[in-house]
């Protein structure tokens, strides 16, 4: 699946915003609705964890839910990263000059942070 | 949850509850207030992520915040696991019999799930 | 190491060695042959990586092989950890006293290091 | 550090090979000597692990060494990935067409595999 259309979600962005990757409109812009939906689901998982702790649920069952939340966060990060590579990094490559080096170094550092958690 | 005990200090559980690791009182019982505080902070981080996406913050800055949230979740999981080993697993060892094998296998599987995310 | 015992089967250690978890005989003692077999397989994977780099294999294919080696190392670590919990940590719990706290803290720190890589 | 010169290591590649990212000469080509050095060091760590198991070293000390080896593998993977993004992915962006989408998807899947181990 390499299309940049949001998965199963209509977005309200006007078509003319596409292709503008300036300061305020980043690679993930078109998937905004999908990203917010994912994050609200994760927020619900974290509230679920609070209920579990409050109701003295068995430790191992809480750990299973923590793993699910962590996985959901990593999956969100990967989607964001994919859009970043496709838009911001690819744009820097097309522009030419030194910017591509800085962008790739920055992206690699972000990936390193994601791997270390 | 209305308790105001500071994290890491003894909480006002009656002494007779200690040592009872039955259905409703698990290893993490005494740290309940601290756990809930941590989870509410993580919930705040997730809401912060929603604001960042909504305000079109730069992708890499969002990824940095995702890594911080994942790290906080992992740190919560590690504390829960430590308490589980100290109470549930150690209790099973003291009791003797086959239960220790089941408890250790269960804990190892939970650790494997945490490592894979 | 010349033993040929199949992995996971009882090895020819004298019975009197069992239960002695002193300096030289740790929890993983009985699985020694299996552990060495796993580690030699991982060593072979690392040599395979050197061949791949030397033969200019495509970066992504090398990354796939790195992930396989990392997974094999993590899986080895998890088995070692399971045996450590079952033997060293459980023994400390049975002995009573403060040792269990130290053992659990030490194991949790090792798990934290494994999760951060 | 964004220069593509190998860190502290003279490489024997003729200068005219630079810029040729065809089938047999990938992004990591210039760092070949450095990569092989890293991998040989990791191979040495794995052999060190075999010695530790053979000499019945304490489980936790073995786990610490496993974490160091995993970290070294991840660090090697990150360097390879950075070079891949800088060369193969950036080249696809410059070429234009659909290839950039395929390259970014492929790289993201490799990163996902690295994160899950």
Figure out the total of helices of chain A.
Answer: 3
Count of separate structural domains of chain A = 1
CATH topology term of chain A: Methane Monooxygenase Hydroxylase, Chain G, domain 1
What is the level-2 CATH architecture name of chain A? Answer: Up-down Bundle
Average pLDDT reading of chain A? 82
Distance between the termini of chain A: 27 Å
Provide the helix percentage of chain A.
55-70%
CATH superfamily of chain A, by name, is Metal-sensitive repressor, helix protomer
- Biggest sheet features of chain A: none
How much of the sequence of chain A is in beta strands?
A: under 5%
Principal-axes geometry of chain A comes out as: elongated
Give the largest interface pair and sizes. Answer: A-B, 48 and 50 residues
Would you list the SSEs of chain A in sequence order as H and E?
HHH
Ranges of chain A with pLDDT <50 over ≥5 residues? 1-24
From the alpha carbons, calculate the radius of gyration of chain A and give it in angstroms. Answer: 18 Å
What oligomeric arrangement do these chains adopt? homotetramer
